Each structure stands twice: as structure tokens, then as C-alpha cells.
Amino acid sequence: MKMKNAWQRWGWPLLKVLLALAILLAVGHRFYDDLSHLDTAHFELRPAWLFVSSALYALGLWLSAWYWYHLLHVFGDRPRLSTAGRAYFLGHLGKYVPGKAWALLLRGSFVRGPQVRFGVAIITSFYEVLTTMAAGSLFAAVVFAFDPPNVPGLDWHPLLTGLLLLAVCGVPLMPAVFNFIVRRMAARFEKVDSYQLPRLRLGTLIVGLLATGLGWSLLGLGVWALLQAVVPGPPELNWANWLRCSGSIGLAYVAGFLILFLPGGLGAREYFLVPLLGFAGGRPVIAAAVLLLRVVWTATEVAIALVMILIRHGRDTETRRHGDTEEQRQSEGAVPTSDQPGHPFSVSPCPRVSVSSLP
Length: 359
Prior knowledge:
This protein has 359 residues and is mainly alpha-helical.
């Protein structure tokens, strides 16, 4: 028993760290080799397209955030859309901490309040994430079924990979399966929240697949915009290229997500994405584009989170300022109060009670 506890406490975490380092070193070596063959003399950066890619990525994420907000309402909780959005994007940064559970815990912590139960926030976050990943896998499987990529020496088939990822993410989403999972998860929070949770129906899943599927199409358009920023002869915007970019980012993103010990899917997403985008140019320039995509999209996540924090801070400051102004006006006599001399309804003022003085 002691050895088992020691393995769970030290052995398995250490093994995950070593595996993550091995993957990152292998992928990093491959990227180093690719970038060493990059002809910088013909490399041109078009910064405006980086902002376009960033904006499209943000819009795609907002669709997933909206679906989570919708799920909270389905479960009977009533957060503001702005509150749910702030919690979503702040929690989104938790994916860069080893162990994907941090993103869900952070999201639940930021949205919890009088109108939102912590346990419900965790359960709905779990369902939203799986729905988003299933939609990305489904998008990739459908695209590559009709337009399989031509990648020389590819040792994994994109269609089969997409179907496998869809099975892993999609099976828990089936109403019968997920309702069973909800009952098991609810038992863990029964001491925190009072649960009378509704059963999710197929319509909720369909809404989620449509909303997040549209989000993946925006992310695919964001990938196309990034290619416009760096590829010397970038691909034109047509249905075929748009769908290829959407299917590629869907498969690569989900593959990176399922490797749980890689923070943010770092390395795995890039490993899958480079060969899938081979239609847009040579491998060295695509490798540079994929690395730049990681930088731009991560910066977008951080920027949105900072904006959300500043907006909340500004609202809190404004609320306090208005509260102080009202108290000051009353103390100066600008607003008639009942304790002014000669007032026909004069009463003794209520003493202020500090929270710290309460037992």
C-alpha cells in the first residue's frame, strides 16, 4: 500500500514530466531541422494578417464560451454573459498548467456566486470542452473523408485519426452516457451544492456541435489568415482551402488536448499541423507559420483575459465610487435625511456595523 501511494504521489507525476520532456525534445529537434532549411531571403512577414488571425481565433473561442453559458442556463443557473465569458477566458489559461483539470477548476471558481453553483459550473465546463473537441474531430473526419491530404511518408491516416478522436470525445457526450456521468459527478459535490439537475437531451448536444463547429470553421479561417502572413505564395481563399485549414486545426488541436500531460497540447498540436498544412507551401515555411500561430493565438488568449480583468476592475471601481459619492452627498446634506433637525419623521441613525465585529 505504501509503495502504491508513493507511486501515485511521486512516480506517476515524474513519469508524465519525463514523457512531456521527451515529446517536446523530439518535436523541437524536428522543428530545428525544418527551420534550419528556411530561406529567410524570401521570407516576408505581413503583420496585418496576424491581427486578422487573432480576431478570428477570439471569435471562435467566444462561440464555445457562449455554449457553456447556454449549458449553465439549461442546468438552471443564471450568470451574466459577461461573467461567464470572463470565467471562460481566465479559466482557458489553465490549460497551460500540467493537468487539464486546472482549466475547469479555475473556470468554476471565477463564475461561482449566488446565481451559479460551483459543481454545476464544473459539470457544464466538462461537457462544453468535450463537445468542442468532438466537433473538431467530427469536422476533421468529414473533411478528410472527402478531401484526404496528400502527405508523403505520413505514418498515420488523418481520417482514421479523426474518427478515433471523435470516438474518444463523442461517446461521453451521448445523453445516456453523460447523464450517468453527471450523477456520479454530482455525488462529489453533494456537500457543496443542492442538486436537482435536469437530464441533458439530444437537442442540447446538437446545439453545441453546431455552435462549436462554427467556431472551428472560424479557427480554420484564422489558420488561413496566418498563412497569408508568412507564406511567400499563400493559398487563395476558397472552400477547399478553408475546409482543409479547419479540418487540420481541428484534428491537431484535439490530438494535443488528449495528451493530458502536455500543457496546452504544446508540441503535439504542431507535430500534427505541419504535415496537414503541406498543401500551402514547403515544410520549412509551414513550420515557421505553425510556430507563429502558437505565439499569436496564445497572446490572444492572454490579451482577452487581461481585458476581462480590467473591465471587471473598472466596474468594481465605478461601483465603489458611486457608493462613496452617495454617502458623501448625504453627509453634506445635499440629500434630505430623516435625522436632520426639524424633520417631521426624525429617527435616530442606525449605527454602522463592521463585518469583522460580527460573531
